[in-house]
Amino acid sequence: MMLALNIFLWVIVAALGLMAAMRGTHLFRDSVRGSIIDFLQQLPRIALGVIGSGFIAEAMPQDLIVPWIGPQSGLLGVAIATIGGAATSGGPVVGFSIAAAALKAGGGAPQVIAYVVAWSLFSLQRLIGWEIPLMPARVVWLRAAVSVPLPFIAAAAAMLLNRP
Amino acid sequence: MPERRRRRPFDFSTALIFIVSAVSGLSVYLRQGPERFFSVFRGDVLLFGNMLPKMLAGCLIGGFVTLLLPRELVARHVGSESGMLGLFIAAAAAAVLPGGPFTIYPVAGAFLGIGADAGTAIAFITSWMLLGYNRALVWELPFFGGNFVAWRVILCLPLPFVAGLLGRAAIRAFTLRMESPS
Question: Does residue B4 register a pLDDT over 50?
Answer without folding.
Answer: no
